[in-house]
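The freezer alarm interrupted the setup, so I double-checked each line after restarting. Inputs confirmed:
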Amino acid sequence: MTKLDAKIPEGPLAEKWTKYEASVNLVNPANKKNLDIIVVGAGAAGASAAASLAELGYNVKVYVFQDSSRRAHSIASQGGINATKNYKNDADSDYRLFYDMIKGGDFRAREANVYRAAEISNNIIDQFVAQGVPFAREYSGYLANRSFGGVQVSRTFYAQGQTGQQCTLAAYQALSRQIHAGKVEMFSRRDMLDLVVIDGKARGIITRNLITGEIERHSAHAVVLATGGFGTIYYLSTLAINSNGSAALAAYKKGAFLANPSLAQIHPTCIPVLNDYQSKLTLMSESLRNDGRVWVPKEKGDKRPANEIPEEERDYYLERKYPAFGNLVPRDVASRAAKERCDAGYGVGDTGLAVYLDFKDAIKNQGYDTIKAKYGTLFGLYLKVTGINPYEEPMRIYPASHYTMGGLWVDYNLMTTIAGLYAIGEANFSDHGANRLGASSLMQCSGDGYFILPVTIGDYLADQIKVPKISTDTPEFEKAEKAVKEKLNKLLSVKGTQTPTSFHKRLGHILWTYSGMKRNEKGLKKALKLVNELKEEFWKDVKLSGGLNELNHELEKAGRVADFFELASLIITDALNRKESCGAHFREEYQTEEGEAERDDKNYSYVAAWEYTGEMSNPKLHKEELVFEFVKPTKRSYK
Amino acid sequence: MNITLKIWRQKNKQDKGKFVTYKLDGVSTEMTFLEMLDYLNEKLIKEDADPVAFDSDCREGICGMCGLYINGRPNGPEKGVTTCQLSMSVFKDGKKITVEPWRSKAFPVIKDLVVDRSTFDKLIQVGGYISANTGAAPEANSIPIKKEDVDRAFDSGICIGCGTCVAACKNASAMLFVSAKISQLSLLPQGRVEAKERVQAMVLKMDELGFGNCTNTGACEAECPKEISLSNIARMNREFYKAKIS
Ligand SMILES: Cc1cc2nc3c(=O)[nH]c(=O)nc-3n(C[C@H](O)[C@H](O)[C@H](O)COP(=O)(O)OP(=O)(O)OC[C@H]3O[C@@H](n4cnc5c(N)ncnc54)[C@H](O)[C@@H]3O)c2cc1C
Ligand code: FES
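Predicted 3D structure, all chains:
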């Protein structure tokens, strides 16, 4: 049995990474050119990793399912990226960011990883600026900052509402440069469908060429998964519609543990569901809560237009309930509060499933031009989707699935429980505990890719320099390829009556209802049953068109939905196991009198890492006990 | 509402392709254009017909993966939107809508409405970057940059690489795409160092990849969903001549 060893270096928190870097095994430059690394995914995490590894001299192969690596979902991130520059002189520091993330994550993240993420945050900003990211600046010419939810300092760097686009393009360009230099081979329109493990080590992947349908084998000395999050499992989410969990699931089934799969973030400020045809939900960046005030009418079912409701008849419920943080409480708290008000009958709009986010006061105090400069892109986006002009009327918002804190379990080296298999960016679980703070994902993704993985992977590869090129002509590749083909053929042969999308919608509905912002044992058990039934129905009645050897989006979708069923069961199993409330995981049985999440540190201060044990048996739970050496877990309060 | 769709169908690169007409009932004005195509596809699958292949991912106008020729215009009749942001409310009940892929030699059709835009990646690969290796960067605030310059660099940097400019241009020129990147980087002090090599390499590559010339008709700017300005092309031309004479 694999024992979970997080391999955290000894010593004081602030010295761990420096000491690690000083003592880590290195691969000498001449040997690097004999080592191949596969990177799956080219978002903020994958592109920065691939470029940096290539700059070091490794041979890198990159795989993405889009037509270009520039289109990874990271391109859509909006509000910003954190760093501890303390340019505002507001007493920010590595320790403060570390503490904010540990607390924001409700004391369910690993101290050493989080501190390292904070510690290297400044290097990331330096790197991006050098690569040409046009972060917002003051008239002085120096970089500007804003604040984000869950914190009391201004440490967020931003490029209007398109920070992710600018950072992702910088990483994409660095990657493009390495492609030109011949150090990276790029494989676009490829779906990774399986991982190949030889003698306990990750040695390659099986992909499907999405244009020709060909099933291909690719080998390397190490494999890096930078495949992002799977919040799309809820069907409607703020993610790009093709984001998925298939790579993570493939790794899980080959022996990588999946950690805290039920810890999923539901983001409070999204455009509400408008109709049945909707294919995705649009995020309105959290940065809007800096100046926007959240409210609902004091009177239940008040149907008057927002602007006709006088000031004294409005309930600014976040300011009322959380005076210290007000509209800037963390996401989990804000989402639950919105749900609570709507469930109690105070919601607005046709469905009653929305609350107002109002800029009236901000425009009055700061002026139209200032607000336009800060949020122009977002206001425009909102107007396009809803037809409502937020300069004149408050926005309507509601929570939506947004981010997966859980993911592949990794140690301090970002290595999974399979030797030579790494997981970086949103695909791993390590830094955000039970709730992620705004602007900390881009930071973690690019930190993993630019600065951490290129160091830690050397520690493993130093051992591999004598290993010649890995052949793809082995029984392990053969077997994996065969399994992939069987699964695809099976999907095509069902020839039922319902489309993959219709199944995805129903699955999403089950998860949203029973395993969303509020959960309880009865509901979760019911959900598990419903998911299993739906999965059975899927394999009996799914209907695809087209064949294997052509561009076939329906086949791609069907494969992803099939995998979502398995992930969904794991999510629910994890949510059932965690008999406490923490961060985004709110079990109704475990709440304080005021309705806040009640943690159980005595029994659940651990990372739940699940091991696959076979098709017919239950996953096995492994616990990584969380040791809080440097902070004392306290009751998380934003009052 | 009810609409009639005339859609370009092409099995693969080799296939000659043709228009096929579909009648579609029950379309809601609340749908986006792509949700309408989703709706059509769900229907086609149920009828054992082949769904229409088209690309999309973010569905909020930022990844640049969608992009269709709708009634003879890239991304349809609305200004400043990508295809995924186009709403069905702009179409009238009973009307016919013609849907085609981008048509350009540099963007061959792969299937139906899906095209190969990898030539855009190739353009970036020859110089659309600042060669700053990981780890080599100075402190971010060590070079103050005029707000005005950064704001202009941002305005050029928001290109999403969708290919509308090429599709809109009668010469299939990639000038707007290339000039946006060149402008962004050359407006920033850290990008000046390689400005000359960058512009030369990218302009040369444009010709090599089969993109056409710019004859200043301005269709690219008019149709660009991000409303990227034609002034980028002027800036690129200045950079190019500067590089030539220096
Ligand atoms: C709307 C929105 C706004 C956000 N705003 C912010 C923000 O302001 N600040 C912030 O810090 N965070 C933000 N986030 C979160 C952040 O954007 C993501 O967590 C982050 O971008 C994830 O990056 P990544 O590199 O891990 O993965 P992604 O960017 O999701 O990239 C995944 C990559 O993996 C590839 N891939 C996946 N599966 C496969 C497979 N099976 N085969 C081949 N390739 C595969 C894809 O092609 C892609 O290249 C936002 C998220 C959303 C949804
Ligand atoms: S799908 Fe991303 S821009 Fe349209």
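Quick read of the result. The longest helix of chain A spans residues 553-577.
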